[in-house]
Amino acid sequence: MITFNQITKQYPDKLALNQLSLKVQSHEFFVLVGPSGSGKTTLLKMINRLETPTSGSVSIDDKNVNDLNLTKLRQNIGYVLQSGALFPNMTVFQNAAIQLANLNWEPEKQHDRVAELLTEVGLPPKEFMTKMPHELSGGEAQRVGIVRALAASPMIVLMDGPFSALDPVSTRQLQDLVLQLHQTLATTFVFVTHDMQEAIKLADHLAVIHNGELQQIGTPNEILAAPTNDFVKNFFRDASQQKAFLARVIESGLGQPKNHQKALVLQQTDTIMDWATILHRNPAALIEVANVVLVPTDFPAYIATMKKGDH
Amino acid sequence: MDSLETYLQHNSQQIIGALGQHIVLSLIAILITIVIAIPLAVILMNHQKWGEVVLQVTSVIQTIPSLAVLGILIPFVGIGTIPAIIALVLYAIMPVYQNTYAGLTSIDPLLIQAAEAFGMKRRFKLFKVQFPLAMPMIISGIRIGSVMVIGTATLAALIGGGGLGTYILLGIQTNNNNALIVGAILSALLALIVSGVIRVLSKVSFKKTIIGLVSLVLIGGIGTAAVKLATPQRQTITIAGKMGGEPEILINMYKDLIQQDNPNIKVNLKRNFGGTSFLFKALQSNKIDIYPEFTGTVLQSLVKGHTKVNPNAHSAYKTAKKALKNQFNMRFLAPMKYQNGYGIAVKTSVAKKYNLRNFSDLKKHRNFKAAFDPDFFQQADGYPELQKVYGLNFNSVRTMEPSLRYKALARGGVQVADAYTTDPQIPKYHLTLLKDNLHFFPPYQGAPLMK
Lengths: 311, 451
Fold this sequence. Notes:
The structure holds 2 protein chains of 2 kinds. By secondary structure, chain A is α/β, with parallel strands linked by helices. Chain A folds into 2 domains: about 1-240, P-loop containing nucleotide triphosphate hydrolases (Rossmann fold, 3-Layer(aba) Sandwich), CATH 3.40.50; about 245-305, CBS domain Like, CATH 3.90.1280. Chain A is built from 14 helices and 14 strands. In chain A, strands 6-7-8-3-9-10 form a 6-stranded mixed β-sheet. A 4-stranded antiparallel β-sheet of chain A has the order 2-1-4-5, with no helix packed on it. In chain A, β12 (about 265), α13 and β13 form a beta-alpha-beta unit. The longest helix of chain A is centred in the middle third of the chain and has 17 residues, at about 170-185. Chain A starts with a strand and ends with a helix. Helix content of chain B is about 60%, strand content about 10%. Chain B is built from 18 helices and 10 strands. In chain B, the strands form 3 sheets. A 5-stranded mixed β-sheet of chain B has the order 7-6-8-5-9. Chain B has a 3-stranded antiparallel β-sheet with strand order 3-10-4, sandwiched between helices. Chain B has a two-stranded parallel ribbon with strand order 1-2. Chain B is elongated, with a radius of gyration of 27 Å. The interface of A and B includes residues 73, 83 and 102 of A. Chain A: Its EC number is 7.6.2.9. Chain A: Keywords: ATP-binding, Nucleotide-binding, Transport. Chain A: Belongs to the ABC transporter superfamily. Chain A: One of its GO terms (molecular function) is ATP hydrolysis activity. Chain A: This is ABC-type quaternary amine transporter.
C-alpha cells in the first residue's frame, strides 16, 4: 500500500500540490488523471523520490520512503517514462537488462529474463535483442521500456504518461498489454495520464487531480456516475461511456417515481448494457434506480436521445 | 641552395629525431590534458556555477598568445621540455574541458532521470550512460586539442623544447626554405594524421580506446626505458649553440676537438637551441655544459656593471672573463681570433654612389630607409644610443627579422640595416659593411663558455 499523507509541494513560483492525501492499495491498477500542470507527475515521482514533498510524507507499506535506502527503493520500483527514454547507446537487451546489470545478475540469467519478458510484450527476442533504439518504432520502444521496468520483478511499477506520444492503434494495443500484464503479475501499477478515456479503461481506482488538489477518488464507474464537482463532470463530459450510465438515464428525465411496483434494483453506476441484458432475458422487466422506476419502453427512448449527441 | 630532396637525405636522422620529439611532446601534453580536463568536467558537471567559471578561465587562458605563455613560464620553470608541456596543456585544456562539460551536461534530462529512477549507482551511471552519450563530444574535444597541441608545439623550439619547430625556426633565421618546408609540412601532416586516427578511434568502443591508450603509453614508456638502459653509460658533454649557421659550425668544431682528445666522451650537440638568455639559463641549470658566447654579449647583457665597454678586443675579453668568474662562477675559455659583431651594412652599389665608408657618413642621408633587428632597435644601448653617438636620424625605420633585412637591402626596399659581421649573406647579396669609426659597438669575440 502506498500512502500519500498531507502532501504539499511548493515551487518558487507555484504551489504544485496542496495538502493532498490518498491511498493506493497493493496490487491494484491506480491511475492519477488530470490536465497537464495539475501536479499528478510530481506526485508520482515522490514514490521513488525523484521529487520530495515540501511537507507531508509518502510511505510504502507504512514505511516512510525517506527512511529507506534510496538505491534499494529505486531498484524495487519499475519506471516507464514518456516516449520510452531508452539509452540510445545501448542495444534493446542492454537497455532492458540495465537494472539487472546494476544488481549484478549473471549474464545468462539477464538474458533469459529479458527474452521471457520480450516474448510476453510481443517482441520476438531473437529479432529484437540486438537492435538499437533508433531502429524501433514508438510502440516497440515503449514495449522495451515496459520490459525494462518489469525486468527486476519490482513491487511497484510507475508509468508517467507512457503512451501520450503514440498513435491511437499502438496506444490501444499497449493499454491492452499493460492490463494483461497487471492481471498476471502481483504488482502495483501507478499510472499517470491526462487522457480520461485511458484512465477509465485502465484504472481499478483513479484519482482526479486539478491545480494540485485531489478532486475525487474512486472506481471509474463511481466517478462517471457521480462526479463530485463541475470540474470532474466537465473533465469526463466527452467520455462516451458516460452516457451509458443509468445515472444519466435518470438525469434525462425518463422514468417514474417509485410507486410500489416490483422492480429489479440497479445502481446508478450500472450501465444501459446491464439494463439491456435484463430486458433481453425478460422483455417486461422493470428496473429501479435511485428510487426511479424505468419501464422497458424507456430503453429505446433513451437510446434515441443519444443520437442527438448531447442530452 | 640544395634541393629539398638532398636536404632530406642529408638530415633524415635529425628530422626523424625532431619528429619523434614532437610526437612525444604532443602525446605527453595531450595525455596530461585529458587526465586534468575530463575529471574536472565530471566533478563540475553538477555544479553549474563553478562549471561556467572554469569554462571562462580556460577560455581566457586560450586568448593569451602561446608565445607569451612560454615567456611567462620561463622564470618559474626555466626552459626546455617541461615549460613547453605546461604551456601546451594550458592551451589544450579549453577544448577538451569545454567539450566534455558540454557533452555531459547536454544529455537529455529524461535519460538522466531514467538512470536515476532505476537506482543506478553513481559510477555505473557515469560509465554506462553519461560517458558513452557524451563520448562523441569528448572525442571531438580531444581531437581539436591534439591538433592545437601539435601546431603549438612548434613553438617549443623557442625555449629549447625541440621538435619540428626547430626546423621552422631554423628556416626563418637562416633563410633556409627547405628547413622551413620540412618543419611546417611535417607538423601539418602529423596534425592531420592524428586527427584521422582519433576519428577512427572514436568508432571503436570506449573500453577498447582506453585499453589502446594505456598500452600505447606503456609501450612508449618501456621503449624509452629500454633504449636508455641499452645505451652504455658514458661521460656525456652537451654543447649547445644559438640559432644560425655560425654557432653550429663552432659547436661541431668543439665536438671534434673534444673527441680527438678523448674518444670515450659522448658529445651531445644541441644546435639552434635558442636565444642568448635561454642558453645562459640552460647553462646555469646544468641542462647544457658548453656554449659559444661573445664578449660583447657577455658584457652588455649577461654580467652587471659594464655599460662602458672597452673597444679593445683583448681587454674586453679579460673584463668579461673576470666578471663571469666573479658573478656566475663560470669559465670563459680563450677566444677565437675573429669577431662577429654588430655592423651597419649598405648595398655596395649604394656605398659607391654616395661614397659611404664610415657610420658618420650616414648622417647626411636622412631619406634612407633603415631596417633593424627588433632587439637592436629597442635596447637602450642599441639603436637609440647609436643615434645619439652618430647623430643619425632616418625618416623611416622599421624592425625586421635578421634574415629578412639582408634580402630587403638587396632588393632596395631599405638602404641601411644592422648586420652581423660574419654573416654569409654580406658577400652573397653584394653588401658593404661600414666602419664603426667612433667605436660604438663593443668587440664581439666568440669563446666557449662553461661552468
